[in-house]
Design goal:
Length: 514
């Protein structure tokens, strides 16, 4: 029976679960599109009046479900912010760990999900989409992610991971009328199932060699058995687990699904994919490296250095020749994963704090960029080619200015927030004597500056295409773009409060493993 303090710490997850189940029931039983089949059973026949009624009902349902999902996220965030989090407190018989590290990442996840829902509001409102399940699936995915972040047991970790994955499989292929979306969902399902199998096999090796499932019990067993000589079975298990999580965060060479899923999925879903699952994946691997594989810090560091270098180089070089905006952002996200892994290779609290700083800045940069992409429609059709950006500043100067801020920030141009993110990451590499990794990171950042600046060149210096101006900017998308752009611009004025917060979170993670 859970204690009262367990329920208090789990209040955000309880709100998410009850909200998701309630919205699912509302969506299932609310009156929507009902069409009588033909007498011969050979199809569906509707009149213009029927279609108008169906559109109104579907739009009402979508409005209620999308708005309800955002309300649930807001309530969960309100329940999370005032919590006073203890240092490494275990709840539910040690199945979950409540600490400031997990608390910080959960707040990032909730904020990222809330903004993803807000920026996709207009798309979710379209009667043509008529898929009330999408915001509900996002809530279930977030529940799985929060459990992954707080997991102190391999079974809880795997259950949270699969809850996330099952929802993401459907989200990736949610645009049923699009062949590319269906292909993206299939690729993500096949590779996601493969990565889950690798992860589960690594967990089985850990359990087989240690006889334990809780993180602290596994770590104690590793530290004390065989006179300090580590069995190769546990080392192989760690490699499989890192490989499985590498798929989830799109680290090279486990990135094959990323460009196709980013391009094929609807842009609001791509926005969600680009931000929230990566936060959860990084949090899981950080907790495992500290609390379970602390004795393997040298071996784990070598693996992470290779993954980081490969992700930065492949992501930066592959993005150069892309013509699709979403595919370019996919390879850009892969390179950003490489930058984030630099801090994990450092293997100390300050290096982990640098990764948290980077992830926290990556969230508004990516949300704002995809908000700009989602805003670029002409005649109701989304624009996906880089050439469509030509002359954007001539007929939409504010959108062009915001997109330029995001591109300069991703390139690491001072004094924007992206510069500080890369500064702390590269400094952590130098402080931990990872000079080669820092050099590769700087060179990859220079390469990536080329395609970011090419976007700015298209926006400001190329003549506009003679196809007319963009559709009016939706109000909620403008809010997201404006707020994230202000965060990027104002970070230089107030960096210490955020940096101190994530440093305390990283320190708490390391204290909990001692």
């Amino acid at each position: 029976m859970p204690h009262l303090h367990d329920i208090i710490y789990l209040l955000p997850e309880i709100i998410l679960l009850l909200g998701a189940l309630s919205l699912l029931m509302i969506g299932a039983f609310m009156r929507g599109e009902k069409i009588a089949p033909l007498a011969g059973g050979g199809g569906v026949k509707t009149t213009m009046k029927d279609e108008a009624t169906i559109a109104v009902a579907a739009n009402r349902k979508n409005w209620l479900l999308a708005g309800g999902a955002m309300l649930v996220i807001a309530l969960a965030l309100m329940a999370s912010l005032p919590q006073t989090v203890p240092d490494g407190n275990e709840i539910l018989s040690g199945m979950l760990r409540i600490d400031r590290f997990g608390h910080a990442v959960k707040i990032f996840i909730l904020i990222g999900t809330g903004f993803s829902l807000l920026v996709g509001w207009r798309w979710l409102m379209r009667a043509k989409a008529a898929m009330f399940e999408l915001p509900v699936l996002m809530l279930f995915a977030v529940i799985g992610m929060t459990q992954m972040v707080a997991a102190n047991n391999l079974i809880v970790l795997f259950l949270g991971l699969e809850l996330q994955n099952l929802a993401l499989y459907v989200l990736a292929s949610s645009q049923r009328e699009s062949r590319r979306s269906s292909e993206a969902g299939l690729k993500y399902f096949v590779l996601g199932a493969l990565s889950s199998g690798l992860l589960l096999y690594g967990m089985s090796l850990l359990y087989g060699f240690t006889g334990a499932l809780n993180y602290d019990a596994i770590a104690n067993n590793i530290a004390t058995q065989n006179g300090g000589v580590m069995p190769y079975g546990i080392l192989i298990g760690m490699i499989f687990i890192i490989t499985g999580i590498g798929f989830k965060i799109s680290a090279v060479p486990f990135h094959m699904w990323t460009p196709d899923v980013y391009e094929g999925a609807p842009t609001p879903i791509t926005n969600f994919f680009a931000v929230v699952p990566k936060l959860a994946g990084f949090a899981v691997i950080m907790r495992l490296l500290v609390e379970v594989f602390g004795e393997f810090h040298v071996e784990a560091g070598q693996i992470l250095v290779v993954l980081s270098m490969a992700s930065m180089v492949v992501g930066s070089l592959a993005a150069i020749n892309q013509r699709s905006i979403k595919r370019l952002m996919a390879y850009s996200a892969i390179s950003h994963v490489g930058y984030g892994l630099i801090g994990l290779a450092g293997n100390n609290a300050d290096a982990y704090a640098a990764t948290l700083v980077y992830l926290g800045i990556y969230v508004p940069m990516t949300l704002g960029t995809f908000g700009c992409i989602l805003a670029m429609t002409r005649g109701g059709k989304p624009l996906d080619e880089l050439s469509d950006l030509a002359g954007l500043a001539k007929y939409h100067p504010w959108l062009a200015a915001a997109l330029a801020v995001f591109m300069f920030s991703m390139a690491g141009i001072p004094p924007l927030a992206g510069f500080f993110a890369k500064f702390y990451i590269f400094r952590s590499a130098i402080d931990n004597n990872l000079i080669a990794l820092a050099v590769v990171g700087v060179l990859s950042s220079v390469v990536s500056a080329y395609y970011y600046c090419r976007i700015i060149k298209l926006i400001y210096f190329d003549p506009p295409q003679a196809k007319g101006a963009l559709d009016p900017l939706p109000r909620e998308v403008a809010w997201v773009i404006g707020l994230t752009a202000m965060v990027i611009l104002w970070f230089v004025l107030w960096p210490n409060g955020y940096i101190d917060w994530v440093r305390h979170a990283a320190t708490d993670l390391w204290k909990g493993s001692e």
